[in-house]
Amino acid sequence: MEQSNDISILGIESSCDDTSAAVIRNGVLLSNVTASQAVHESYGGVVPELASRAHEQNIVPVVDQALKKAGVSKDELSAIAFTRGPGLMGSLLVGVSFAKGMARSLSIPMVDVNHLQGHVLAHFIEEEGVAKPKPSFPFLCLLVSGGNSQIVLVKAYNDMQVIGKTIDDAAGEAIDKCSKVIGLGYPGGPIIDKLARQGNPKAFSFSRPSIPGYDYSFSGLKTSFLYFLRDKIKEDPLFVEHHKEDLAASLEFTVVDILMKKLRLAVKDLGIRQVAVAGGVSANTGLRNAFYEYAKRYHWEVFIPKFGFTTDNAAMIAITGYFKYLDGDFCSIDKPAFSRVSI
Q1: Is residue 39 over pLDDT 60?
Q2: Are 26 and 15 in contact (CB under 8 A)?
Q3: Scanning 6, 77, 289, 314, which has its CA 20 to 30 A from the CA of 190?
Q4: Kind of pairing between the strands at 139-144 and 274-278
Q5: What's the pLDDT score for residue 36?
Q6: Strands 8-13 and 19-25, how do they pair?
Q7: What is the secondary structure of 43-58 as a DSSP string?
Q8: 252: left (phi over 0), alpha (psi -120 to 50) or beta
Q9: Residue 142 is inside which H or E element, if any?
Q10: Angle formed by the axes of helices 188-196 and 239-270, to 10°?
């Protein structure tokens, strides 16, 4: 059983196409193991049915490896934290069902975690021997991924308010779709990032939405990009091949500029200068550089996660579960997974 006063949390993440398990003891990360699924690349996007089948194959070895790497036996676990949603229902059900079965067999509590809150709280993951500043409450967090583009006011680990969000496509989704249009493959984010480093961000200009408040819109940018390419390819069938780097750099520059201008407006209006970024798109080099630039220009204190904590991972689920465990905020076994929900 659990030894001394140690609190050991097993985190399980299965919201999309990554099967991940992590162990946190007393707030310190001991292991974080992720199995990714290459099967989706040839389809140009995640296929839900294939994702859930792969989770079924991966979850037992991933959890086993996470426990072994952490040096923690299952009998030492205090609780199991799991992603309850949002995400793909078939994928979520694999993780939720596994967590319920394991928690019941060990007679330990379960902690349900909102996937989006997990991304925000990734900033509080501690690693042995790694000194890293954490944001203090309240702070603003730009949460950007393939499915979400939000500005979140974080008042406490369990008190978050979305003050701005996309009204259509998310930033990551727009990048992926534009990448697909120019034949760069899936996922588009890392490919665009790499090409953009070699291109001119001011080479081409694309449509920018005029949306009130802190909300975002990226569907107009996507359409503008598509029409721009259509016209240019009529003039030169090899236009994309000749201008790949500049197209990537200009697209990235436009997306980052749209994201940062709304974030700056929120910072200015609320007077909160502690600003974090989270989610898959926070791995983008252009966005990271913009955060450093804004920090210098506008005197922000910025918090940028390490690359391993930007994409879907169980460490963020485990740390969120740890905070909820300390509050005694447990989940009953009858709680179902949910595919859609706000933060």
Answers
A1: no
A2: no
A3: 314
A4: parallel
A5: 74
A6: antiparallel
A7: GTS--HHHHHHHHHHH
A8: alpha
A9: strand 139-144
A10: 100
Residue 42 has pLDDT above 70, yes or no: no
Question: What is the rounded CA–CA span in Å between residue 104 and residue 101?
Answer: 5
β-sheet with 301-303: strand ranges across: 159-165, 149-156, 139-144, 274-278, 301-303
Give the range of the structural domain holding residue 37, as residue numbers without chain letter.
8-131+310-326
Burial class (CB in 10 A: 0-12, 13-18, 19+), 312: buried
Alpha carbons 30 and 54: distance in angstroms, whole number: 25
Q: Is the pLDDT of residue 2 over 60?
A: no
Q: What is the DSSP letter of 314?
A: H
For 139, residues 6+ apart whose C-beta sits below 8 A from its C-beta are: 154, 272, 274, 275, 276, 303
- The stretch 1-22 carries a mean pLDDT of 85
Q: Locate 226 and state its tokens.
A: 């598509």
Among residues 218, 38, 207, 53, the alpha carbon closest in space to that of 146 is found at: 218
**Is the domain of 40 the same as that of 72?**
yes
Name the phi and psi angles at 214, rounded to 5. Answer: -100, 5
- Indicate the pTM of the whole model: 0.93
List phi, psi (to 5°) of 135: -70, 150
Same domain, 14 and 121: yes
The CA distance from 209 to 189, in Å, is 21
* pLDDT at res. 44: 63
One domain for residues 110 and 151: no
Mean of per-residue pLDDT scores for the chain:
93
Task: Provide the strand spans (E) within 1-147.
Answer: 8-13, 19-25, 28-35, 79-85, 110-114, 126-127, 139-144
**pLDDT (tens digit per residue) in 212-223:** 999 999 999 999
Q: What spatial distance separates the first Cα and last Cα of the chain, rounded to whole Å?
A: 34
Residue with tokens 């697909």: 180
CA 312 to chain centre: 5
- CATH of residue 54: 3.30.420.40
Which amino acid is located at 197 in the chain?
R
Residue-wise pLDDT for 296-319, tens only, equals 999 999 999 999 999 999 999 999
